[in-house]
Recover the amino acids of this structure.
């Protein structure tokens, strides 16, 4: 009878407490990137149309380091580097080459990102907290 109580208590604890698995950081990045690509399509261009074509004869000094200039998406928390053509996730450390004119397909089961028929490489960098 004592063993039956222990078995029932153990079975009750298994039902009561939900099992939680660790989240895969790559999958977390892909879910946020999929949300970013479907909900947000920023119209970012690295050039501006010129009104006077002769005004660009003198080169302007670049006061901003383009590798450090980014915009942060308020919904997903991803950082968009338009000059570098990358999207970076500071929480997981993953980055991906990004062009706002191309549509991306995210396969969450396979853990891959495709543009047209070719696979886009997802890279892992250091996390920035």
């Amino acid at each position: 009878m004592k063993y039956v109580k222990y078995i029932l208590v153990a079975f009750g604890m298994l039902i009561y407490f939900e099992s939680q698995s660790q989240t895969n950081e790559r999958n977390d990045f892909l879910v946020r990137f999929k949300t970013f690509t479907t909900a947000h399509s920023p119209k970012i261009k690295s050039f501006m149309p010129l009104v006077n074509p002769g005004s660009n004869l003198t080169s302007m000094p670049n006061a901003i380091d383009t590798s450090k200039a980014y915009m942060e998406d308020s919904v997903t928390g991803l950082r968009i580097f338009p000059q570098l053509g990358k999207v970076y996730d500071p929480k997981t450390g993953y980055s991906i080459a990004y062009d706002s004119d191309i549509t991306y397909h995210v396969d969450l089961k396979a853990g891959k990102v495709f543009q047209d028929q070719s696979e886009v490489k997802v890279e892992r960098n250091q996390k920035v907290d």
